[in-house]
Amino acid sequence: MVKITFPDGNIREYESSISGLDIAKSLSQKLAKEALSITVNGEIWDLSRNITTDSTISINTFDEKDGKYAYWHSSAHLMAEAIESLYPGTKFGIGPSIENGFYYDVDFGDTKVTDADLPKIEQKMLELARKNQEYKRREVSKDEAMAYFTQKGDEYKLELISELQDGTITFYEQGEFTDLCRGPHLHDTSQIKAVKLTSLAGAYWRGDEKRKQLTRIYGITFPKQKLLDEYITFLEEAKKRDHRKVGKELELFTFSEKVGMGLPLWLPKGTQLRERLQAFLQKVQKEYGYEPVMTPHIGGKELYVTSGHYAKYGKDSFQPITTPNPNEEFLLKPMNCPHHCEIYKFKPRSYKDLPIRFAEFGTVYRYEQSGELHGLTRVRGFTQDDAHIFCRPDQLLDEFKKVIDIVLYIFKTLSFDNFITQISLRDKEDRSKYIGSDENWEKAENAIIQAAAEKGLETVIEYGEAAFYGPKLDFMVRDAIGRKWQLGTIQVDYNLPERFELEYTGEDGKKHRPIMIHRAPFGSMERFTAVLIEHTGGKFPLWLTPDQVVVLPISEKFQDYAQKVSQFLNKNDVRAFVDERNEKIGRKIRDNELKRIPFLLVVGEKEAETNQVAVRRQGQGDQGVMSLEDFTIFVKNEVEKELN
RNA sequence: GCCGGUGUAGCUCAGUUGGCCAGAGCAGCUGAUUUGUAAUCAGCUGGUCGGGGGUUCGAAUCCCUCCACCGGCUCCA
Length: 644
Hints:
The chain is α+β, with helices and mostly antiparallel strands. It has 20 helices and 35 strands. An 8-stranded mixed sheet has the order 18-22-23-30-27-26-24-25, with helices on both faces. Helix 5 (142-152) packs antiparallel against helix 6 (155-162), helix 8 crosses helix 16 and helix 13 crosses helix 14 (438-454). It is globular, with a radius of gyration of 30 Å. 38% of the residues are buried. The chain binds one RNA strand through strand 14, strand 15, helix 8, helix 11 and helix 18.
């Protein structure tokens, strides 16, 4: 007998060696039909695999992450089977389940495959799925595994097998297709009802740009057509929030081929938005004891040789600027920190002066690879809301925690509640990518881990994501279609102070080395604005939006009153303007609603006579009539509430 | 940088297999209308069909090449 503990704590006994599917059947027919995988003691298993020891289990349907995992993984195999039958001789790399669907990296050899071929593969997948083929798990020896793929001529699978331990290798087979795979998989293909292959792209084998590029096909499948339709609708809705589209509609920013790719041009409305964001942060920083500084857009090459940036990024950057003097070279500033180090060195510093916090909205230029550019989220010229804190070792933890407070405050004010907090540490295997001593890295990494823990942050640790001079705490936010972007970042750095020979005189009269914290709560104004646009769909908070109120006169007769209303509002620090066009009121409402102006004031004869305004709130329709004074106070209160 | 796709007016898009001076809606301009809660009507302007080269009697359409953009990969101080 085996004791099975269910998620609700119930325990049932079964005859020994019972499969997940049988357990599901014992609970309900419906569950058995919908079950996709089973989690056994924290490990995801096939439903058909027998459980032989007492276990805690949960049965996963498509509603559970672990269910989707098996479902999409099996779908990847189904796609591979379809591809193999349509394109015999295709070699397969890896084909995992991902957050939304799955992909498979394949080598089609000399056959050229484009997205026009995807529907054909979809059809084949559905055809194969209808055969209700079972996914059969089989343990194989390493020799057997090697022999199979040698005969098949699939060098990718052979490479993967060569790295596995004998005795841990499993094959999965469904229909005509056999794959090296850890599993788990569905019981059979019958649950795969709706298929959409979404895109096709090149992907380097094992993520190594020096190796062969395979063809990656992305897809997603669902147990019901309706779910696929919903997913497609969701994607279409997400596209409407794309910051590149909204940025154009609301006239926030643009690009010009003549100016150069990845070099954004901020239009008047976008500039207003950005300046307001900057003013907001400046106010916060002032409260936290930051001092503004300014530095030029270029700096002598030696500055970056000293910092190590030149050695690390020099060849992939905008090339040095030369002058008539043959020995003189400048770099377009890729970072603000070296400049700030030089400001620190302006005069001798005492331990009493620390911490020193230099803040600058510093514009930097980086030669990002052309294929990497993306709207405002990845550009070649951008402005960091940068600051460098120079502090003593005993101040480090406290200073770091204060920066976390700033980031959290900003995210809260802008309603970014779905962010990921990531601790980015050194690569465990390859330390050659980093500068500085192990001892200092250790200290820096521990400081971040401790500060994050003391602040109660739920963090994920990523190895190999650190900057070359120090570890980071990164705040990541998703965009409209789920891509993750790093916004806020806080970094601990023992290395640049050393390279720039920064010092302060301690209580003991001796020279000591300060520690630097690099930090940018927004990250960059460009990327932050982009993510803000996608989160709000262009409906910015009232305090931030470029135009807060538009006054709509019913006809030209009431232009004068409309102007009076607008002037009154502006005098009282409410940003308003008049829609002076000779259009009907319906038209004016429609156009200004689409421009996401928070308040629309309709004014005609009645309002003009009584000094009132008919208020309409964006997306919420008519709100009734108010006196102009009351409305002004109301708007100001709303702004106050947002910024509390 | 690599793989795949796309590129027609300020914007959104027609223009199938090469064939009369390249079209529509919106925007813009002019005029009429003077409007009460999501598009008033009419007229006009606007395009070297991404750039360059080629094939052809003839190219937006076919070929080559470059550029930009889109989706990935790689990268991200």
